[in-house]
């Protein structure tokens, strides 16, 4: 019977070991399952964290865009307000321009009439050229395709040309009735002080007498000075003193 007890004890130990082995396997399995679940949870947490980080970054980006749009809208608002003010100013200017245009047209017509009267009373040099300029101005005033500003510029330009005549010396060739015969002569204009002619053969000379409104003959002694003046006016000689009679000035 002594041999039976050890066998029983060994069986108990073996059974106990088997039970402990099963429990250990169960614990290991549970632990593995827990670890797997923990890993899955961590993965979900990481995904949620990444998603939150991405959304936070997106939120920050959107905030920057909103701030930029706010600044842009403020700038646009300023530009719009400035454009509205400019439009109001332009509308006011247009109204004023209409008033000015209604006033400036009669003024230009009076200026042209005054210029015609002045030319008619002036020393009769470049008669055809000045007549054509005045006719061009009168015709221009009837044209609708030319702006009022351009018309006014041309009228002022014509006045400037007339002003320049008074401070320049000029030589030109034209036809003149000399001794009841139309002849080609050289004219010498010295400002508005003197208008002298010399026949092309160099034998006859005369100057404009404003009082009698006609040309009067000059003595032959003046012909050399007239020739000199013609050459100076044509830039063939350097400017120099001239000795000539004065009839044109009043």
Automatic annotation (TrEMBL):
Signal peptide annotation: 1-21
Protein origin, superkingdom: Bacteria
GO biological process: vesicle-mediated transport
CC annotations in GO: membrane
UniProt cross-references to InterPro entries, sorted A to Z: SNARE, UCP028069
Keyword Ribonucleoprotein listed: no
Name of a matching Pfam family: DUF3450
Keywords: Signal
Protein name: TonB system biopolymer transport component
């Amino acid at each position: 019977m002594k041999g039976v007890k050890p066998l029983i004890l060994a069986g108990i130990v073996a059974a106990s070991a088997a039970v402990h082995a099963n429990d250990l396997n169960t614990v290991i399995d549970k632990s593995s399952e827990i670890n797997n679940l923990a890993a899955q949870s961590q993965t979900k947490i990481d995904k949620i964290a990444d998603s939150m980080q991405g959304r936070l970054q997106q939120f920050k980006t959107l905030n920057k865009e909103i701030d930029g749009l706010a600044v842009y809208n403020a700038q646009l608002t300023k530009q719009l307000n400035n454009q509205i003010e400019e439009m109001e100013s332009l509308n006011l200017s247009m109204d004023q321009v209409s008033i000015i245009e209604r006033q400036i047209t009669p003024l230009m017509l009076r200026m042209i009439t005054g210029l015609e009267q002045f030319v008619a009373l002036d020393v009769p040099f470049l008669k055809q050229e000045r007549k054509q300029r005045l006719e061009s101005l009168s015709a221009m005033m009837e044209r609708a395709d030319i702006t009022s500003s351009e018309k006014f510029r041309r009228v002022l330009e014509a006045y400037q040309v007339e002003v320049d005549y008074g401070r320049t010396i000029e030589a030109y060739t034209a036809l003149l009735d000399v001794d009841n015969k139309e002849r080609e002569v050289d004219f010498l204009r010295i400002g508005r002080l003197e208008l002298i002619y010399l026949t092309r053969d160099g034998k006859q000379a005369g100057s404009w007498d404003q009082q009698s409104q006609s040309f009067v003959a000059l003595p032959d002694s003046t012909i050399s000075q007239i020739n000199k003046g013609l050459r100076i006016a044509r830039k063939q000689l350097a400017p120099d003193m001239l000795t000539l009679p004065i009839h044109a000035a009043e």
